Amino acid sequence: MAILHNLGFPRIGENRELKFALEKYWRKEIDEPTLLAKAEQVKQQRLAQQSYLDYAQIGDFSLYDNVLDSSFLLGHIPAKVKHLENTDHSSQLESYFAVARGAQPKNDSCCAISAAEMTKWFDTNYHYIVPELNDEVRFSLNPKPLIQQVIQSRKQGYNPKPVIIGPLTYLWLSKTKDGSSQLAYLEKLLPLYTELLGEFAKCGVEWVQIDEPILATELTDDWQWAFKFAYQSLISRKTKLLLTTYFGELKENLTLACQLPIDGLHIDAVRAPDEVSRIEKMLPNDKVLSVGIIDGRNIWKSDLTAKLDILEPLQLSRGQKLWIAPSCSLIHVPISLERENKLPEEVKNWLAFAVDKLDELQLINQALLQGRECIAEALQNNALSIQTRHHSALVNDAQVAQNMEQIDNIIQAQRSPFAQRQVQQRQELNLPLLPTTTIGSFPQTGDIRAVRKQFKTGQINQTQYQEKIKAEIHACIQKQEALGLDVLVHGEAERNDMVEYFGQQLNGFTFSQLGWVQSYGSRCVKPPIIFGDVSRQSAMTVDWINYAQSLTNKPVKGMLTGPVTILNWSFVRDDQARADTCMQIALAIREEVQDLERSGVKIIQIDEAAFREGLPLHKQHWQAYLDNSVNAFKVCSNVVADNTQIHTHMCYSDFNAIIKQIAQMDADVITIETSRSDMALLGVFDSYQYPNEIGPGVYDIHSPNIPSVEAILALLEQASTKIPVENLWVNPDCGLKTRNWDEVTPALKNMLEATKIARARFNQSVA
Predict the structure, then answer these.
(1) CATH class of the domain whose range is 398-404+434-766
(2) How many Å apart are CA 307 and CA 623, to the nearest integer?
(3) How is the cofactor bound (predicted)?
(4) Is 673 annotated as a binding residue?
(5) What is the pLDDT of residues 176-185, one digit of tens each?
(6) Residues acting as catalytic residues
(7) 299 phi and psi, to 5 degrees?
(8) For 515-620, where are the E strands, in sequence order?
(9) pLDDT tier at 252 (50, 70, 90 boundaries)?
């Protein structure tokens, strides 16, 4: 009989209870005990939903981020927040959230605390808080919260399997400001892991899940050596280690992983199916082989027959040393299909969310134990569902296939060189030095959400809804004009989400009601489901943008989400190449760009916030992904005249390795996140001259902190040393929808005041 286990489970609660409790706590509407009580309730709910597993994973729950949890577990707490724990009325939770979100000063005697840097977790849309390494780092184990969870779960009858991030992955995820190797800190860190495993042993823990997903990336010789050194140093442990890898192939790390002194190895058999047989032969027979057989990253039903074809030979060779699980943590998918009663029934029958995936795992295990005959009906229904999906008229559109035949010709179309376009655009727009703008969205207030809900539930009709949204757009334009911004936006009051809004107006998409997935902290998204060929039904944004432009003489940007971001932030069909789906979306967005330009819009922003996110973990696959992504952007943008300015936006990613490909997108203006890293991302421009205009974000919108004029001015001056001042724009890091007006208004005032000072300094130098 195979052992059933899981690597991780959604932690926001079935009704996003944790999200709402966190936000109430941050607004000071509830106290710490109330927040922790709600968190405990969600924890217990999660355990109950997985109660039939042979092991209950402990430690995958978090109030904000698991990497940040690891930092506090290891005593790796930034010096800038340590003073908070020395006050009479503070707790570690205050320090924890100060690292994650920043903190305003409580009085005149202390300064605001800036949030730690945040970036994407491998190639997912989950964001983690980046640990910072420097000479002042002193690790100190703080295992009590995790040990208490282990003890409590055992008392409740569960068999706990603690989940921790491995020492190599933790260091690899960290950053050093001086450019030194993270491995310099390994010897300081390893004694804490030894101590932690000892604490688990005292609690009677049999297995510890130690996550090392960097084994699915390209590791240099020194990192491979570090793996051998680190795990050899942990060999005296009294608990068993299940080393978990996921998100891709092990490739050159395969032999290393199989030979490490561990007790079991988990592999991603969904993304790396061809490695299963090799690993089975190479991994010693006395070690557990955990096979990640169910896709933890997407929402399609598994082909159970195909999964059994893989597992049955392994069961014969491994026996009780075979474990089965999802490929990775299920945090990347929604919780359950049970209450999804508005999905098209045919499409719903093709899906499996987190709870449903664990049900699939149970069926597979039952077949391994008793034979396929015992689940014959389930296998038959599963096969029918798989077959129906592949042949469904909902999936296949002959017109889209015909349009795709022209894609190569469309990609080849070229705009004039940027220098020529730039002259025409400056004449057309007549903007000042250091033009100011925002990324697109403004606060999604309670009033806006109420209007959207009223329309959705039929309390107001289409005309009433449009009038209310127009009123919000009008107010947004007035506020921007009062502030003095140069290029305005309509504020996106009509959009619940930058991807969902477009998906709702495109063929080939559907949406869940409750399919929320955590992006970071309390931020949750409800990814669209791309089940079929994609095409545009009609204009999606033109009327709203034209209305906003009618209210002002300043240029208003047309705001679109790009094809790569729509792809990467959706659950994508797996029955055709992702590249083909991306191009279908690009053709749809191209039509919208054409309509916006025809209506007189002179600046069109095609956001590609997730451009970097989809980059494969192995460099040998980079070129194909980048070529397709750049081409998809060009399909959208190369249709406009030279005097129409194309913008794009990218956020929270390290772009340095792909800056040349980003330049190949040939957007007239790109805006990027740089404030949390203190403009460190602009270091690439020391060796690469970016050819077009760029707006490095000058303040962090993911923090409630209001930036000072001096701080923004300092960032602008840093940026001016990397980018010609005449090509520099001024803007926040990202959209402002998650903030409130009390934060946005003073922050933008300070941004504009800093710009005014900078213009006075830079105008002279430009002249």
Answers:
(1) alpha beta
(2) 31
(3) Binds 2 Zn(2+) ions per subunit. Binds 1 zinc ion per subunit.
(4) yes
(5) 988 789 999 9
(6) 702
(7) -115, 15
(8) 517-520, 523-525, 529-536, 558-561, 571-572, 603-607
(9) very high
